[in-house]
Amino acid sequence: MSQHDLRDGITLAPAGEAAATATPADLTWRPLQGAPAMTIHLVLPREQSPVHRHVRAVAKGVAHELYWLAD
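Below the sequence we write its predicted structure tokens.
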């Protein structure tokens, strides 16, 4: 969701914990106690360009380093 949409003073939006480090001054981060984990998927087209393949390789490497993938 666009941060522009959140600035109306009414709208709420779920966000991953990483959003807390990039929250503008006019938005407030409020962590939820007991909130479920957020699953994130990387979606790529079936016909991948060299850029898509590179992004996939980097994402997979990071996921392995952080133990996000089962062996």
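The mean pLDDT is 81.
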